[in-house]
Amino acid sequence: MADAALIAVSVAALAGCGEQNTFQPPPPAEVAVARPEKRTVTRYLELTGQTAASLKVDLVARVQGTLEKIGYIDGAQVAAGTLLFSIERATYETSLEIAEASVAQQQALLAQTEADFSRKSALVERNVTTGVTFEDSRSKRDQAAATLNQAQGEVQQAKINLGYTEIKAPFAGRVSARLADVGSLVGAGGPTKLATILQLDPVYVNFSINEQQVLLIRQGMRERGVTLKDLGPIPVEIGLQTETGYPHVGQLDYVAPDLDPGTGTLAVRANIPNKANALLPGLFVRVRLPVQRDVSALLVPERAIGTSQSGSYVLLVNAANQVEQRAIEPAEQVDGGFRIVTSGITAEDRVIVSGIQRAVPGAVVKPMDKTATAGVVKP
C-alpha cells in the first residue's frame, strides 16, 4: 500500500515537471510602420565641387630694377588700383627725358627740311633749279618725318617702361605673401613673379555632371524656358563639409560646350556671392542643383533606409504581417530628414520606421501604424 502511494506521488511529480518545460513561443515583436509620404517636391542633383577664385592674376615685374617699396601686408584685402610694388624709377625717368629730347630735335629737323622742300618746290615751278635737287629735298623731308615718328614711339615706350615700375592691383582682392623683398633685383632676364592676387567675391565652384544628369538638367531648363544663353535663373546651392544644409546660394554661369571624351562628363561652373570670404579657393563643397520642380514623389524617413552590398533597401510588413526586405532606388534627401525613393515601393506599402532592430526578414511581427516622421524614434 505504501509502495502504491509512492508511485502515485512520483507520477504526479513527473507530470508537473512536464507542464513547466512546455515551450511557449514569444509574442511577435512590435514594430512601427508607416506608408510612404507622397509629396510634391523639387528634384535636385547632389554633387561635389571645388571652389576657385573668380579672378586670379600673377603680379610680375616687367622691367629690371631694384624693388624699392612694398605697399601691402601679406594676405591683405586691397582695393583696385592699390600700389603694391614700386621699382626704382630713376633709370626710366632718364630714358623718358632722353626720348623726349630726341623728339624735340627731330621736330626741329623736320621743320627745317619742310622749309627747304617748300623753297625747292617754288624754284622748280620757275625752272630755276633742277629736278634732282628738288627730289633730294623731298627725300630729306620724308626721312626727317620718319625719324620723328620713331622718336615719338620711343617716348611712348619710355612712358610704358616707367609705368611698369609701379605694380598696382588690377581688381579688388586678396594678395598672397610677397615673393621678393625690398632691395631685391627684379626683372633681370625676364618678368619676375612678385605675388598673386585673387578675387574671392564672388567665388567660382567647378563641378562635373555625367551624361544622364546633363539630360535631366536640360529637361528642367526646357520646363522653365531657360536656354544656355541665359543661365542666370538656374540657382545653385553650396554647403561646406562642416555646414548643415546648403547656406550659400548662387547661380549657374557656365556650361562647357561638349562632354569630356575621356571621362564622359560635362564641366559646369557656379558663381557664388562670398562677401564674408567664407569660401576659400580649393575647398571641396557639396553642390545641390535643381533639375525638376513640382514633381510628385514618394518619401520615406532617412532612418528607415538600410544599405548592404547589394544596395539600398527598406523593411516592409506584408499582408501576412511578415517582414520583407525590399530593394529600392533612393534619390536625394529633402527637408525634414526624408529621402526620395524613385523605385522599389508603392504608396500602399507599410515601411518599418521604428523597431528595425527587432525586424528579421521572414519573421512575423505586430505592426503598429504610425505617421512617417523624420524624428529619431527608439527601436
Order of helices and strands: HEEEEEHHEEEEHEEEEEEEEEEE
Strand content: 35-45%
Write down how many β-strands occur, each being a DSSP E stretch of 2 or more residues: 20
User: What name goes with the CATH superfamily of the largest domain?
Assistant: Efflux pump adaptor protein, beta barrel domain
Query: Could you say which overall geometry the principal axes of the C-alpha atoms support?
Result: elongated
According to CATH, what is the topology of the largest domain?
Elongation Factor Tu (Ef-tu), domain 3
Please describe the biggest sheet, giving its number of strands, its sense, and whether it closes into a barrel: 6 strands, antiparallel, barrel
Question: What would your notes on this structure say?
Answer:
With 379 residues, this protein is of the alpha+beta class. It has helices spanning 2-20, 90-125, 131-163, 211-224, and strands at residues 29-34, 37-61, 65-70, 77-78, 83-87, 166-168, 173-175, 185-186, 192-210, 235-240, 248-255, 265-272, 284-301, 306-308, 311-317, 323-327, 329-334, 338-343, 351-354, 365-369. Helix content is 27%, strand content 39%. It has a 6-stranded antiparallel barrel. It is elongated, with a radius of gyration of 42 Å.
